[in-house]
TrEMBL record:
GO terms under biological process: glycine decarboxylation via glycine cleavage system
Ranges for domain Glycine dehydrogenase C-terminal: 763-883
Protein EC: 1.4.4.2
Obligatory cofactor(s): pyridoxal 5'-phosphate
Annotated gene: gcvP
HAMAP family xref list: GcvP (MF_00711)
Protein name: Glycine dehydrogenase (decarboxylating)
Length: 950
């Protein structure tokens, strides 16, 4: 059977009803009226014929079989791990977890917020620091974020220099070189075991466990750096920290690293959750998301994202970072892994890993093979003059991958699933026999070992059996709203179907168990899949080439802007450093521009929501030959197809600039128009929006960058390539060549099953659904902006402001009330304050669209009652929403509306009701009293029970 009816919500009969509502005879007429003729593409997409689910899975099996699954002992920042089946099945393969959205609306996100807080708590405990964020994208970019954080936090230092340990991971150094070069930071790479180089530094990056396995004593180096006025960041290993003294105990200001070895598969390089922790006093410079604890309207503890003033929508070019996402799903796995094993379980794994590494070292030295470092955790560096290639090949013949450090050295890293047989196979590759059991000579020195306790919170002891873990995860999922329960009508976020057939392949060992640095002959299948996907994406967008390396939309933006900047520099146009950005643009646009060393100039928005052409001309004239380009979103952030987009592109091109088209809204363009053909030079795409990779509670994301022919030389380079070393002018934006390769099979499956016809139908249906919602609500909440023919693109902005003025009921009140109806809120107050932006997507059927419409019309009646003076605002059901079961079942009820109106405002809710776990969360209280660790269980038990609801 065709996949298309599975993916599209409305069937033929429902499509007819919707078309009649919007006043179009058929989809062809609707699209012809909505999409400007000047950008419409008449040629069909040159994609393979669509496959059924079974056919696509069979085809992908053939591709996956071309990968060779080995025992992976390469290391270099990646470790083989065991994903407990209880976590794989109940998190990674559970739509309640992988289809949820970023927890911006805290009341319906308490489960994933608690899971992320568990991750933060584990990171804080193990690093010995006061705060941790809810994950970053990968270790290399996390180190880059730490460098920028130290620069912001250490403003009293006049230095622009940062010192970085030469023992750092090569991919970290490659990413750092590009990021520092872009913003004018002088990067000094040196062997910091010999002390700091001369001169002043605003920051120092130390490595606790070096790429070759050597373990450093940090205390003296940290003290020296502080004495010289520098802040200190430490790259570390969470599993090693179950044995080693923590960075915090040794004086570090910041700790970063990867949580991949806490149960997250190798995935050919990603997605993996990086972490960052810091001491008190630095929290307002911390990038990324931070889960904190506040209280709800009943005074009970409630989780929320803290310090949201750091979000890019508010601070734009002054944001702490351009990152507006995380690796939430992977962080949740890592946090659950820590809870499942607990302190003693993690320590036992670490001790076993070290014992096996010691066995390897013992066998090598007994056979006369020198071991370079006496102190190591899991990685042994062996000296084999002139024999490295032969040893690596001999190990591969035995089914084991190890790392060639150079022609004379080989490195071997032990992971959780490895055993004595794996170690003995590696020894045989060196020509060394298996040793006797004695390994005591390789014990870690007592001075390096930690003596303090960690993971003492009950969350790390209560869920140790599989039954307890299963029930805990179920209880958390039950607190949340995800796509498995309801439409998530978020504008600009495209929460469409994540089909089971698309998700299934990411768990196959041929994809999950491949090391990103495995020899190319072992990764033929992965590279074939990636080449096909990049080619398909290039055809869909009309560009010459695509790179899937950026592992988030923000990183795709950065890669695109770096391509523009590098292109101008290659032509000698070093003055072109100004980027024009419309005032309605997504906040990451401006933040990404700053990271590419570009100055932002804002272009005004006209009354109809389009780019103000007069202001554009004025800004182009004012900027002159400093114009690097413009960033536009198409369809626009206001949810319309702007007719003058080609004029905007031409004006910028005529002035010597480049055009960046933000691809966040590509869901309305597939098969209908191609940015690379109507004026774009570069775009980033969102595979976690348009191409079905699920949001996972706030990540993983994939943000490929697509470029025209003249920008192809400036795509992000491989951070592991030989020419990515010192002095190279490379700009990788992620630590792995293919970024989050492990989730690319999802998008491959979607395109393979949809084909050109299916992708085009997806766009057409998305446009129809948005216009249907807009038309059904026009008399109560009119759409603020429309394009040609009075139509919208794939989303519409509902204008609540007139009724808010009459009633005092805010758009936020409406969002909270929608929870009582069982809906996640639309996008609040972006891009226009006081409005809600709705994107229904192509995957929702007519019944679900009508359910949302009914909820919004019912809420309008409740607002109108306040406006008419029938109910006082402060006494209204809207101001008290959402309503918990505890409040509704209180012994007495003194509110101005009946319990039935609060709980069951529509009759169908009596058949299926989502019960929100907390009342309205107080944001200000959470920021004033920043708590970013798991509260004790007593905090919930001792909170005052709900009194008479009033």
């Amino acid at each position: 059977m065709s996949f298309l009816p599975r993916h599209l919500g409305p069937d033929a009969a429902e499509t007819g009803i919707m078309l009649e509502t919007v006043g179009a005879a058929d989809l062809d007429e609707l699209v012809a009226r909505a999409v400007p003729r000047g950008i419409a593409s008449d040629e069909p997409l040159p994609l393979p014929e669509p496959m059924s689910e079974h056919e696509a899975l069979t085809a992908l099996r053939r591709i996956a079989a071309k990968n060779r699954v080995m025992t992976q002992m390469i290391g270099q920042g990646y470790a083989e791990t065991v994903t407990p089946p209880a976590l794989r099945r109940n998190i990674l393969e559970n739509p309640a977890w992988y289809t949820s959205y970023t927890p911006y609306q805290p009341e319906i996100s308490q489960g994933r917020l608690e899971a992320l807080l568990t991750f933060q708590n584990a990171v804080m405990d193990l690093t010995g620091l006061d705060l941790a964020n809810a994950s970053l994208l990968d270790e290399a970019t996390a180190v880059a974020e730490a460098v920028l954080m130290m620069r912001r936090a250490n403003r009293r230092s006049g230095s622009r220099r940062v010192a970085v340990d030469s023992h750092s991971l090569p991919q970290t150094l490659a990413v750092l070189r590009g990021r520092c070069r872009a913003v004018g930071i002088d990067l000094v790479v040196a062997d910091l075991s010999e002390g700091l180089p001369e001169g002043e530094f605003f920051g120092v990056v130390l490595t606790q466990v070096g790429v070759d396995g050597d373990v450093a004593d940090l205390a003296e180096r940290t003290e020296q750096a502080h004495a010289q006025g520098a802040l200190v960041a430490v790259a570390t290993d969470l599993l090693a920290l179950t044995l080693l003294r923590s960075p915090g105990e040794q004086g570090a200001d910041i700790a970063v690293g990867s949580a991949q070895r806490f149960g997250v598969p190798l995935f050919f390089g990603g997605p993996h959750a990086a972490f960052m922790a810091c001491r008190k006093g630095l929290e307002r410079n911390l990038p990324g998301r931070l889960v904190g604890v506040s209280v709800d309207s009943s005074g009970r503890p409630a989780y929320r994202l803290a310090l949201q003033t750091r979000e890019q929508h508010i601070r734009r070019e002054k944001a702490t970072s351009n990152i507006c996402t995380a690796q939430a799903l992977l962080a949740i796995v890592a946090g659950a892994y820590a809870a499942y094993h607990g302190a003693d379980g993690l320590r036992a794994i670490a001790e076993r890993v070290h014992r096996l590494a010691a066995r390897l070292a013992e066998g090598l030295t007994a056979a006369g093979v020198p071991v370079v470092h006496d102190t190591f955790f899991d990685t042994v560096l062996a000296q084999v003059p002139g024999r490295a290639d032969a040893v690596v090949a001999a190990a591969a013949e035995r089914g084991v991958n190890i790392r060639r450090a150079d022609a004379d050295h080989v490195s071997v890293s032990v992971g959780e699933p490895h055993d004595e047989r794996d170690v003995d196979a590696v020894l045989a590759a060196f020509g060394a026999p298996a040793p006797e059991d004695g390994t005591a000579g390789w014990d870690l020195p007592a001075a390096l070992l930690r003596t303090d306790s960690y993971l003492a919170h009950p969350v790390f002891t209560l869920h140790r059996s599989e039954t307890a873990m299963m029930r805990w995860l179920r209880s958390l999922a039950d607190k949340d709203l995800a796509l498995d329960r309801t439409m998530i009508p978020l504008g600009s976020c495209t929460m469409k179907l994540n089909a089971a057939a698309e998700m299934e392949p990411i768990s196959w060992p041929e994809f999950a168990s491949i090391h990103p640095l495995a020899p190319e002959e072992q990764t033929v299948g992965y590279r074939e899949l990636i080449a096909q996907l990049e080619s398909w994406l290039a055809e869909i967008t009309g560009y010459a080439a695509v790179s899937v390396q950026p592992n988030a939309g923000s990183q795709g933006e950065l890669a695109g802007l770096l391509a523009i900047r590098r292109y101008h520099l290659s032509r000698g146009d070093d003055r072109r450093t100004t980027i024009l950005i419309p005032s309605s643009a997504h906040g990451t646009n401006a933040a990404s521009a700053v990271l590419a060393d570009l100055k932002v100039v804002v272009v005004a928005t006209a009354e109809d929501g389009s780019v103000d052409l007069d202001d554009l001309d004025a800004k182009i004239a004012a900027v002159g030959d400093e114009l690097a380009g413009i960033m536009i979103t198409y369809p626009s952030t206001h949810g319309v197809f702007e007719e003058q987009v080609t004029a905007v592109c031409a004006a910028v091109h005529d002035a010597g600039g480049q055009v960046y088209v933000d691809g966040a809204n590509l869901n309305a363009l597939m098969g209908l128009a191609r940015p690379g053909r109507f004026g774009g030079d570069v775009s980033h795409l969102n595979l976690h929006k348009t191409f079905c990779i699920p949001h996972g509670g706030g990540g993983p994301g994939v943000g490929p960058v697509a470029v025209a022919e003249h920008l192809v030389p400036f795509l992000p380079e491989d951070p592991a390539a030989a020419d990515a070393g010192a002095g190279a002018e490379t700009f990788p934006v992620s630590q792995a060549r293919y970024g989050s390769a492990g989730v690319l099979p999802i998008s491959w499956m979607y395109i393979a099953m949809a084909g050109a016809e299916g992708l085009t139908a997806s766009s057409r249906t998305a446009i129809l659904s948005a216009n249907y919602v807009s038309a059904r609500l026009a008399d109560v909440f009119p759409t603020l902006y429309t394009g040609p023919g009075g139509l919208v693109a794939h989303e519409c902005i509902l204008d609540l402001r007139p009724l808010t003025k009459a009633s005092g009921v805010t758009a936020e009140d409406v969002c909270k009330r929608l929870v009582d109806y069982g809906f996640h809120a639309p996008t609040l107050a972006f891009p226009v304050a006081g409005t809600l932006m709705v994107e229904p997507t192509e995957s929702e059927n007519l019944a679900e669209l009508d359910r949302f419409v009914a909820a919004m019309r019912s809420i309008h009646a409740e607002m109108q009652a306040v406006a008419d003076g029938e109910v006082a605002l402060e006494d209204s059901v809207l101001r008290h929403a959402p309503h918990t079961a505890e409040v509704l079942t209180a012994d007495s009820w003194e509110r101005a509306y009946p319990r039935s109106q609060a709980a069951y405002p529509l009759p169908e809710l009596r058949l299926a009701k989502y019960w929100v776990p907390v009342g309205r969360v107080e944001n200000a209280a959470g920021d004033r009293n920043l708590v970013c660790s798991c509260p004790p269980i007593e905090a919930f038990a001792s909170a005052a029970p709900a009194e008479a609801a009033r």
